[in-house]
Amino acid sequence: PADAVVVAWRQELRGRTLTAVATSPTPPTAGQPFELTLEISTVRAAAANRARLQLHYFRDHSTVHSSVHELAASSVFTVTILNPRSGKHHVELEILDGERLLDVAKTDLTVAP
User: Which of 47, 54, 88, 93 has the most other CB atoms within 10 Å of its CB?
Assistant: First the structure.
């Protein structure tokens, strides 16, 4: 269909009580901004009201992106990663009650040169 969402990259994230899917409509490429959409499909912690997304560069653990999102009726949010470096990145999705950490789900993302 004409309105179908194109997904070039997809990865599942799992924590103890959390399941989410990260997708991007374009392959992550070094130096090129790309959108990363997170859809939280399962949160067993009733108190969860915020999500923090962080990307860290694998080699030096520097923070490439960090953002906090309110979890309302929809548990889907999209961020733009502005200037990724080539190589592996750690993706961490934290579920919070205010500032209290409830769970963490992780995966890796490789950015093409």
Answer: 93
